Amino acid sequence: MSNSVKGIITLVTHFGTEDSYIGAMKGVILSLNPEVNIVDISHQIPPQDIMAGAFVLSQSAPFFPKGTIHIAVVDPEVGGKRKPVLIETARYFFVGPDNGIFSLALQREKIKQKIHLTNKHYFLGNISSTFHGRDIFSPVGAYLSQGIDPALFGKRIQSIKNLEVKKPLVRNGKIAGQIIHVDRFGNLITNIDEGLLKKVFKNKSFEIIVGNSNIKKFVRSYSYAKEDVPIGLIGSSGLLEIAIRDKNASIELEIKRGDIIVAANNRNPKSDLSR
Predict the structure, then answer these.
(1) Whether residue 80 is found in the same domain as residue 199
(2) 190 in a structural domain
(3) Which of 85, 95, 216, 250 has CA 20 to 30 A from 10's CA?
């Protein structure tokens, strides 16, 4: 790891900021490497929501310098059978529970090795059964930032858990996808990317069907939307989003993560695409 990026550790957790958890994690890291740069990506992941953590991590991790250590802790099975893991890619290190939280981020990465964290020499002395973020993942991240060889932290494994994320289905000139994330503004982010829309519709107009709504307005940015009118747009993630200017589209349209969304150039969207 080069000296210029050796001291960057990011944190994604579901711990919030009201309690002592984040402070304890940072204290452990700084005790082992006082020079490290800790970046809080988010601590507001909904409790136990692994998919939300995976999405947030995937949307932020690629913008960090090579060598950054990403610690992600959304860990409803802490103390159970799930493994603590370290994944080294061509650009980054990912440290956290083996529960799928790295699934989306790793889609963009070339994986070099996966390691089951077993070497207690790099853990805290007393390991709580309920707080591996402090006792395992934070010290491992701190030691990594000092340049410790990843192979020393445990044993190589062949596979890690992946979240089941369905890909959009294309049939008869229509695209059926899913809402995969609802951001804090209530914008509905889908798994349909801009490239697929262009491939299927070839820059021709289309409508978006989600729940009981048919959305015909597609704009470049929120500023082009009229009040109270649901719109589609390509968000900063490069994915199709549904939004309502100055309102929470999830609440207004009664749509949640996992719901089906269809992009079509006619009014018969669901007859052959429901799943």
Answers:
(1) no
(2) yes
(3) 250
Sign of the dihedral defined by the CA atoms of residues 181, 183, 186, 189, in that order: negative
Domain count, the chain: 2
Count of beta carbons in the 10 Å neighbourhood of residue 88: 19
Point out the domain boundary residue: 133, 156, 179.
156
Both 151 and 21 in a single domain? Answer: yes
Structural domain ending residue among the three candidates 156, 190, 224: 156
- The answer to whether residues 82 and 197 belong to one domain is no
Q: Rounded CA gap, 116 and 147, in Å?
A: 18
3-state SS, residue 87: strand
Buried/exposed code over 31-69 (b: 16+ C-beta within 10 A; e: otherwise): ebbeebebeebbbebeeebbbbbbbbbbbbbeebeebbb
DSSP 153: G
Tens-digit pLDDT profile for the chain (275 aa)?
444 335 899 999 999 999 999 999 999 999 999 999 999 999 999 999 999 999 999 999 999 999 999 999 999 999 899 999 999 999 999 999 999 999 999 999 999 999 999 999 999 988 999 999 999 999 999 999 999 999 999 999 999 999 988 899 999 889 999 999 999 999 999 999 999 999 999 878 899 999 999 999 998 888 888 888 999 999 999 999 999 989 999 999 999 999 999 999 854 444 333 33
**pTM for this structure?**
0.88
